[in-house]
């Protein structure tokens, strides 16, 4: 699927270009980000972000600030979207991740999607708290979900949000 450019109040979400490869690699190498997003190389960025058509770059003040991934299920009986995102550490604490989620969820609702899921590592407490402030709730533990660099597995937290949770729109400022 080709995603359109989506504009928010403080950021734009847009399809990635080749010029985003170096900034994305730099963000994915930051200790705060690489702890959760492990092992990114230029080839992996091309294969997972630039080429497949499921990612949008977060652009803040004209700079590449991270990416958000959208994996929609198009079965009309089960319209939902799995979402993943990462954001450069310099933008932490300013609700940019929440704003990016609100932007894509508003767009996805226009396409008929009503359920949205995230699956952060159970130890990524800042991300979990941010998602909870936005209205996501815990739907269960994904046991031994993420393979870590040391060969161990860590659990993931399945979180979801449904359209009926925010009948008047999703406010990224809440919480």
Report on this structure.
This protein has 175 residues and is an alpha+beta fold. The chain has one domain: Aminopeptidase (3-Layer(aba) Sandwich). The protein has five helices and eight strands, in the order ββαααβββαβαββ. The protein has helices at 21-29, 31-34, 42-50, 96-110, 125-134, and strands at residues 6-7, 12-14, 55-60, 63-73, 80-87, 115-118, 137-147, 153-162. The protein has an eight-stranded mixed β-sheet, with helices on both faces. The chain starts with 5 loop residues before the first strand and ends in a 13-residue tail after the last strand. The mean pLDDT is 94.
Decide which structural class fits the backbone.
alpha+beta
Strand content: 25-35%
The third-level CATH topology is: Aminopeptidase
Q: Estimate the helix proportion, in percent.
A: 25-40%
Query: Roughly how many Å apart are the termini?
Result: 33 Å
Query: Taking all residues together, what is the mean pLDDT?
Result: 94
Uncertain ranges: none
CATH architecture title: 3-Layer(aba) Sandwich
Number of domains: 1
Number of helices: 5
Q: What profile does the largest beta sheet have?
A: 8 strands, mixed
Q: Going by CATH, what is the homologous superfamily?
A: Gcn5-related N-acetyltransferase (GNAT)
Number of strands: 8
Measured on Cα atoms, how large is the radius of gyration? 15 Å
């Amino acid at each position: 699927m080709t995603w359109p450019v989506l504009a928010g109040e403080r950021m734009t979400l847009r399809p990635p270009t080749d010029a985003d490869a170096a900034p994305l690699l730099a963000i994915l190498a930051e200790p705060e980000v690489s702890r959760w997003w492990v092992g990114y190389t230029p080839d992996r960025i091309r294969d997972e972000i630039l080429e497949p058509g499921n990612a949008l770059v977060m652009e803040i003040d004209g700079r590449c600030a991270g990416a958000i991934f959208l994996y929609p299920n198009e079965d009309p009986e089960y319209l939902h979207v799995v979402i993943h995102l990462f954001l450069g550490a310099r933008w932490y604490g300013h609700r940019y991740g929440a704003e990016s989620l609100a932007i894509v969820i508003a767009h996805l609702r226009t396409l008929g999607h009503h359920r949205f899921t995230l699956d952060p590592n159970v130890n990524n407490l800042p991300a979990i708290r941010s998602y909870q402030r936005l209205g996501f709730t815990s739907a269960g533990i994904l046991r031994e979900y993420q393979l870590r660099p040391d060969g161990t597995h860590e659990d993931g937290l399945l979180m979801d949000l449904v359209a009926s949770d925010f009948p008047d729109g999703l406010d990224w400022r809440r919480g």
